[in-house]
Write a structure and sequence with these properties.
This protein is α/β, with parallel strands linked by helices. Helix content is about 65%, strand content about 10%.
Length: about 575
């Protein structure tokens, strides 16, 4: 409801126009009764014409009221949905990885689209009908009592039957609304997985399996939707039965009463119209009663997003002034995922200083990526401290911390746009010359120049129209263009050939000489020149030092080296390491 507060003036105009519409509609049956009783029965043509013109005037007022109320209900409803959509989007941007995983990407997409559409439709209908229907109902009942009090029991009987049917219908369909939205989440998830993983599905020839999974979910959704549809389809014929039965009963009772007084004809016609207005009001309310619970399910799903408090809380302003020379210090850092029994990282301590390249290597699942993801606070350490340029990472504002970091993820992600817009993503003020320089360092300029439009070449969503190696190089160029104090390369050279890898690392040295560089790598050749290599095994630091030092003293590093080098190459590296060690 708080989203409607900014539109209180439009809502007041809407309510006034609804009142005008109801007032005009309620005047028509009584005027019709006057035409019948005082005009038709008495044969007074002038009275019929005068009252008829009077009716046209009231009809025009009711029509104006209907147009104004429809306009403002649509205007308020769409603006209301826009505001919620913006807030959900802003909220999701504050979520950490754990919140995204808890809701799932597919569910968040459904909540931002389908659920908001359900709430928007319900709001538009509610604004138009929630006031009009009760006002019309109460006004029609009052007028009906004034017109023919001895027939009012007909309306009571019709309303009682109508309410009974509404309760039965709702009790059948209400539990299905929540199931429907959950199944819609599942369909969105499967669709997203199949579209993003299409190459893998085809490579493993699993189209039939994925088709069966989708068909099963789709059939469940159809079955739920059909059940709701079948129950709801009973509504119209049953309502029309009540509607026509009420009309017939009014005529039958009215004709019997007319035997004593022919002037009762006008009252009977007026009462019949008022009875119809009462039933129509309940029909409108029935539509709302069906739509509002369904929208309420969607509203609850939206509220779960809006009222979820991210686990990572940022300071509004950074506490303290960062040191001019950047550095990163890990002090006895532990980390475990929520609900996990075992820690991913145990008692991690190291220091990385400006101009120094610190590399992390270890077997799959050793905690390399998790460790460096603690620096930009994608996760928070379970215990211990992370100090960045003299300030605890938790004492930074989000904006100030992210300004310091140039991050290149494992999977290079590109946004729809041009090559230039992607490189400038973290440095919007970068000049054309700076963009080209970043691409040159990242070894991307050569392939960019071969493209028809060069830096204006269109990048598809997710970078699907460039190769994995090109995607990685553009992601690296994006980080370079930002000119950060801290470079984080999370296995960002894996798609590069050995020559490109070597050229890129050589070109990076002048750029990173005043920055802290963190590198996660699987290949020893990528990190052998690093100033400090940290070897991880099952979340523990089992080795720390230079390439030669680790070859002499770290068993895990020796095993990794043996697995990646030929025997002759390993022996040569080991001899060099021992020679330097002496």
């Amino acid at each position: 409801m708080r989203y409607l507060k900014p539109y209180w003036l439009q809502i007041i105009i809407l309510l006034l126009s609804v009142g005008l519409q109801v007032w005009g509609t309620l005047r028509l049956p009584s005027l019709m009764a006057e035409i019948v009783n005082n005009g038709i029965v008495k044969g007074d043509t002038n009275y019929i014409i005068a009252t008829g013109l009077h009716m046209l005037g009231w009809t025009a007022l009711a029509a104006i009221g209907a147009l104004v109320s429809s306009y403002y209900s649509a205007k308020v409803g769409t603006a209301f949905a826009r505001d919620i959509r913006e807030d959900i989007y802003q909220k999701v941007l504050t979520f950490s990885v754990s919140e995204i995983d808890r809701f799932t990407t597919a569910s968040l997409i459904t909540r931002t689209t389908n659920d908001i559409a359900q709430v928007q439709n319900a709001t538009i209908l509610a604004l138009a009908m929630l006031v009009r229907a009760p006002l019309t109902c109460l006004g029609a009942i009052f007028e009906a009592i004034s017109t023919a009090p001895n027939m009012i029991w007909i309306i009571g009987l019709s309303v009682a039957i109508l309410l009974t049917l509404i309760v039965i219908i709702l009790s059948l369909v209400m539990p299905k609304f929540k199931i429907f939205q959950q199944l819609l989440d599942k369909i969105t998830l499967l669709t997203r997985e199949n579209l993003t993983g299409l190459r893998v599905i085809r490579a493993f020839n699993n189209q039939k399996l994925e088709k069966r999974k989708f068909e099963t979910a789709n059939h469940e959704l159809m079955r739920t939707d059909m059940f709701v549809g079948k129950v709801m389809s009973l509504q119209n014929p049953l309502m029309m039965l009540i509607f026509n039965g009420t009309t017939l009963l009014c005529i039958w009772i009215g004709i019997n009463l007319m035997q004593n007084n022919i002037a009762y004809l006008g009252d009977m016609i007026a009462f019949m119209q008022y009875a119809i207005q009462v039933i129509l009001s309940f029909l409108f309310l029935t539509v709302l009663v069906v739509i509002l619970p369904r929208a309420n399910v969607s509203a609850e799903r939206i509220n779960k997003v809006l009222y979820t408090h991210p686990k990572i809380h940022w300071k509004n302003e950074t506490i303290g002034v960062p040191e001019k020379s950047p550095s990163i210090i890990f002090k006895n850092v532990d980390f475990a995922y929520a609900g996990a029994e075992e820690k991913v990282l145990n008692n991690i301590s190291f220091t990385a200083t400006a101009g120094q390249a610190t590399a992390f290597i270890g077997s799959t699942g050793s905690g390399k990526s998790t460790l460096i993801n603690l620096v930009p606070r994608f996760h928070d350490a379970t215990s211990g401290e992370i100090i960045i340029s003299g300030i605890n990472v938790k004492d930074y504002s989000e904006e100030d911390l992210m300004k310091l970091i140039g991050y290149v993820p494992q999977k290079g992600f590109l946004f729809s746009g041009t090559i230039e817009s992607n490189i400038k993503f973290g440095a919007s003020t970068a000049t054309k010359k700076e963009v080209e320089a970043a691409a040159e360092i990242a070894q991307a300029s050569e392939f960019i120049k071969k493209l028809e439009k060069g830096y204006d070449y269109h990048i598809a969503e997710g970078g699907t129209n460039v190769s994995g190696g090109q995607k990685q190089r553009l992601s690296i160029a994006r980080a370079i263009a930002k000119n950060p104090d801290i470079f984080i390369f999370d296995d960002s050279f894996s798609a590069l050939d050995m020559k490109t890898d070597a050229n890129l690392r050589k070109a990076l040295k002048p750029v990173t000489k005043a920055a802290v560089t963190l590198i996660v790598a699987q290949r020893i050749n990528t990190i052998k020149d690093a100033d400090q290599i940290i070897v991880l095994d099952k979340g523990n630091i089992v080795g720390k030092g230079t390439h030669n030092h680790l070859l002499n003293h770290c068993k895990v590093y020796q095993e990794i080296a043996k697995s990646q080098m030929s025997d002759a190459e390993y022996d040569r590296e080991l001899k060099l390491a021992k020679k330097e060690g002496k």
